[in-house]
Amino acid sequence: MDLTRAQGFLIDLDGTLLQGQNPLPGAIEFVRWIVKAEIPYLYWTNNSTRTPKVVAAMLQEMGFPAHEQQVFTSSIATSLWLREHVKENPLLYVVGEAGLREIVSDAGATLIDSTTVAVDAVVVGLDRHVTFSKLSHAMTHLLNGAMFVGTNPDHALPTEAGFIPGAGALLAFLERATKRSPHVIGKPNPEFVRAACEKLSLVPRDVIVIGDNPETDLRAATLAGARTIWVKTGVRAEQAVKADLEIASLRDLLN
Hints:
Rossmann fold; 34% helix; 255 residues; alpha/beta; metal-binding; 21% strand; metal ion binding; 15 strands; 2 domains; 8 helices; magnesium
């Protein structure tokens, strides 16, 4: 695959560039190569816990070239979807961390933290501080008819200490409890690819998607019509979708 012919890159973070708070082999060098080649790119992640500003600052501290405008998260895509498909200023009950709450709030949503006021939608992302009470409140809203929206279906998240439950685990809890299925915004939804490409003013066929998870990264890219590179440094999963290129780490792209 001739990377210089790509007009843009969408690069996954957790498991592709990073393992927890540590860069993976060749990751920083590869992104620096993209910058030198003057090819547009986005850090493209299902992780909804941080704002683009926080993600960019974290990446810069590690040595990556990064600006908040180059970060496209499932929280951003979720806020765009809510404005288009629910209403411009929805009432939301959010199961998620500060990044998700801040982004949907900045986009015009009002966040409700109780069951005393009916909400338009329950939005679920990764929440490492989730409580049984919070899940119970979400369940109540869903049983009362609120729309069920998930930022992403990732069942596990790679960290430097191993894997932890992802947003998909929380979605599965509520899906089982309410017998309702969520509308999931992030990977493997191909709309997440198209939304990121639109930010780059490109179409999927001109973009290369780089990720570690065949079930999410590669499936979303393939469904959208983008080319794919599978980096085998993150989630241990069977190859559900054939990649255009398979590599052990991003270091292989520098040879």
